[in-house]
Amino acid sequence: MIFRQLFEPLSSTYTYLLGCEETGQAILIDPVIVTIERDLAEITRLGLTLAYSVDTHIHADHITAARELKNKVGSKIAAPAFDRLPCADVGIEEGMPFKVGSIALQPLHTPGHTAGHFAYRFDDKLFTGDALLIEGCGRTDFQNGDADALYKSVTGKLFALPDETLVYPAHDYQDRRVSCIAQEKKRNPRLGQERTLEQFREIMANLNLPYPKFIDYAVPGNQQCGICPDHLPENLEKYCGHMTESPQG
Fold first, then answer.
1. What is the DSSP string of 127-170?
2. pTM beyond cutoff 0.85
3. 11, 217, 218, 231: which is deepest, by most CB within 10 A?
4. If residue 205 lies in a helix (H) or strand (E), which one and from where to where?
């Protein structure tokens, strides 16, 4: 299996490229619209063909590249069935492996950050989206977020996986690339260290985070699998324009 971790610095988003060496097919997990050219160039360099884009949830901080990738190279769009996106070609459900060549993602419904959030497990890798970050987690104060649900998702499903399972999050803001379940159970200040549900509720209720600056454009755009608004404020135009440089993670 071919694996690459790619980083988009504007929203600090990790996109994951998985390629099947037998069939030459590839998938991109959480692709970002501003890094389409970089991602397609990497796929071409590796001699792969993009079969699917796969999102973990409806993002609030960037526009997914799913629709634009489909327009450019004919890849199909896979997204959680929970969100009932009419633009998705495949609805992903827990208990139904998502297979592309020799790659078989095991979907895990992990609500809390958003109601329709999914994590994807493949062999020893776990792509956690925003549900579980490295020593953190996604916020729960918008998009039907629910602290109780997130606590149950992480402690009941993700922390139940083998300790050596590698944690690959959708974001990191401190240049960290990977963790593991054992490390998060031990060091995560919100959900690890045997935190109780009551403690987690209090932590999440007192984060006092600012309102996401791009959410009012990103959510409706991502509900259409990646549509950039026609009229963005000047300070937000960079979220939909192609960046001249986006380093590979």
1. EEETTSBTTB----SSTT--HHHHHHIIIIIITTS-TT-EEEES
2. yes
3. 218
4. helix 197-205
